[in-house]
Design brief:
The structure holds two protein chains of two kinds. By secondary structure, chain A is an all-alpha fold. Chain A has seven helices and no strands. By secondary structure, chain B is mainly alpha-helical. Chain B has a domain of about 80 residues. A two-stranded antiparallel sheet of chain B has the order 1-2. In chain B, a hairpin with a 2-residue loop joins strand 1 and strand 2. In chain B, helix 3 packs antiparallel against helix 4. Classes of the chains: A mainly alpha, B mainly alpha. Chains A and B meet through helix 1, helix 3 and helix 6 of A and strand 2, helix 3, helix 4 and helix 5 of B.
C-alpha cells in the first residue's frame, strides 16, 4: 500500500509517512511554538500585574466597550475565514474571494481599533516606558498586532490570487494554512481580551504605592 | 530489531497512525448543520462526529453566533459586581469555551486527523507548564519592582 490516505477534510493525497500534508503539519508546529511564545508574554504580564508604582493604571485607561467591539470584529473575521475556505473548496470562486476580502477588511478594522487605542493611551500618558503595566501591555498586544498585520497582508495576497484564479479548490491548502494562522491569532486575542482587559480592568495602584513614591 | 521497530511503528508500509481511506474521508457530507432537515440532530452529529466529516456554512454561522453570544456574556459579566471570587473562574471558563470552539470547528481539528490535535495539545501542555512555572517562581522569588 503505497498510496497515503487522505484524512479529514479534503486534504490532498500526499505520499508522506503520516499521509498528512507536511505543509499543514509544519503550520501546526509553528502554531505550537507560537503558543509558548505568547504564553511567556502573557505569563510575564501576570507576573508584573498590579506592581506598577505610577499610573496610568488599567482601571484608569482600559476601555472595555470599545475593545469588546474590536474583539467581536476579530471573531467575525474568523467566521469569514472559515466560510472563505468552504466556498473555495466547493469551487465557488466569487464567494471565496468575497469572504477572503471580508477577512482583510475585518482584520484591518481590528488593526485600526488597536492603533486608535495605542494613540489614546499615549495621549493619556501610558507608553511602554511609563510603568510595568505599559511595558507588558504594549509588548503583548503589539506582538499580537504584528501577527494580525502579517495575516492581513497574507490574506490580501490570497484574495488577489482567488480573484485571478491562481487560488483554486485544487490548491486550497494555501488558504487552509493561512486560515490556521488567522484562527490562531483570533484565539490568542480571546485569551488576551479575557486576561488583560476583563480580569485586569479593575486593577488600580498596588497597596502602599504612594508611600513608596513619596 | 528493525523488524520489531517496523511492527511497532508501521502498518502495511505506512505509519500505524495512517488511517485507511474510506467513505469517512469523503468531503461535503449531506448533513451541514442547523439549516435544513432535523437541524438539531444534524447539528449534534456534525459537532460530535470527529474525524469523519466537516461542516457547512450553516454550522459555521451557528458556531460564530455562539462565540459572539459568549463574548457578549463576558462583557455583561464584567458589569456584574456581585460575582466576587467567581468572576475570574467564570471568565476563564467562558474564554476556554471560545478557545475550544474556534480550535475544534473553525480550525477543523474536530474534523481533521487526530495527529494534528495531539501535536497542538502537546505544545499546549508544555506551554501551560512553562506558564505555571513562571507564575510560581515569580510568586515565591518575590522579585523587586524595577520601576
Amino acid at each position: 500500500m503505497t498510496q497515503a490516505a487522505t484524512t479529514g477534510y479534503q486534504d490532498p493525497i500526499e505520499n508522506t509517512s503520516t499521509g498528512l500534508s507536511s505543509r499543514k503539519l509544519m503550520m501546526w508546529a509553528f502554531l505550537a511554538s507560537d503558543v509558548m511564545f505568547f504564553g511567556t508574554f502573557i505569563a510575564t504580564y501576570l507576573v508584573y500585574r498590579g506592581k506598577s508604582l505610577v499610573g496610568p493604571y488599567p482601571s484608569e485607561i482600559l476601555d472595555i466597550p470599545v475593545t469588546s467591539v474590536s474583539t467581536f470584529v476579530l471573531l467575525m473575521s474568523s467566521l469569514a475565514m472559515v466560510l472563505a475556505l468552504h466556498y473555495l473548496k466547493n469551487g465557488e470562486k466569487n464567494k471565496a474571494t468575497l469572504w477572503i476580502l471580508a477577512v482583510v477588511v475585518l482584520g484591518t478594522v481590528f488593526m485600526g481599533f488597536q492603533v486608535v487605542e495605542f494613540r489614546l493611551f499615549a495621549q493619556e500618558g501610558l507608553t511602554p516606558r511609563t510603568n510595568l503595566f505599559g511595558t507588558t501591555f504594549f509588548i503583548l498586544t503589539g506582538i499580537h498586532g504584528a501577527h494580525v498585520t502579517i495575516g492581513v497582508i497574507w490574506m490580501a495576497f490570497l484574495a488577489y490570487g482567488s480573484h485571478k484564479g491562481t487560488l483554486r479548490s485544487d490548491n486550497s491548502m494555501d488558504l487552509e494554512i493561512a486560515g490556521l494562522y488567522w484562527h490562531f491569532v483570533d484565539i490568542v486575542w480571546i485569551v488576551i481580551f479575557t486576561v488583560i482587559y476583563l480580569i485586569s480592568a479593575a486593577d488600580g495602584p498596588p497597596p502602599g504605592a504612594e508611600t513608596i513614591l513619596h | 530489531m528493525p523488524n520489531l521497530w517496523q511492527k511497532l511503528t508501521q502498518h502495511d508500509g505506512n505509519g500505524w497512525w495512517n488511517l485507511p481511506h474510506g467513505p469517512s474521508n469523503e468531503p461535503n457530507p449531506p448533513h451541514e448543520g442547523p439549516v435544513g432537515g432535523p437541524w438539531l440532530a444534524n447539528l449534534w452529529r456534525v459537532a460530535t462526529y470527529g474525524g469523519v466529516s466537516h461542516a457547512g456554512p450553516g454550522f459555521y454561522w451557528f458556531v460564530g453566533f455562539i462565540l459572539a453570544v459568549i463574548t457578549l456574556l463576558e462583557v455583561w459579566l464584567f458589569t456584574v459586581e456581585s460575582l466576587g471570587i467567581w468572576f475570574i473562574p467564570i471568565l476563564l471558563i467562558l474564554s476556554l469555551g471560545k478557545f475550544v470552539g474556534v480550535m475544534a470547528y473553525f480550525m477543523h481539528l474536530r474534523f481533521d486527523h487526530l495527529l494534528y490535535t495531539y501535536f497542538f495539545a502537546s505544545a499546549m501542555i508544555v506551554g501551560v507548564l512553562i506558564f505555571t512555572i513562571i507564575l510560581f517562581l515569580s510568586e515565591y522569588a518575590n522579585q523587586p519592582v524595577l520601576f
